[in-house]
Amino acid sequence: xxxxxxxxxxxxxxxxxxxxxxAASGSIFSINxxxxxxxxxGKQRELVATLxxxxxxxxxxxxxxxxxxxxxxxxxxxxxxxxxLNPEDTAVYYCTLTILTITxxxxxxxxxxxxxxx
Length: 118
Prior knowledge:
Layout: E1 2-7, E2 10-13, E3 18-26, E4 32-39, E5 46-52, E6 57-59, E7 67-72, E8 77-82, E9 91-99, E10 105-108, E11 112-117
Parallel strand pairs: 2-11
Antiparallel strand pairs: 1-3, 3-8, 4-5, 4-9, 5-6, 7-8, 9-10, 9-11
């Protein structure tokens, strides 16, 4: 089983920065994708960014140039550096891990709240 633990959320003023972390533990196959999704009140969960174990990134257009995803494969940890935050970034941010075997498996963290005040 895989367990994801997120940290780093909180309250920040518009224009500020936060860094989210997500540590994965358990049976993790080396070829995988880690990333972040977010869900704002009354909205559907949406992709923020993903990063494969081989270094390929994918970013949502809404955060390009402001957020940076990175990972430490030795620690099975993914990070999301969020700069120039605005109130529209307020959401619960969820970490996700997809293990790419013959039958891919996806796992989710419990979520961490990010609130940006104007």
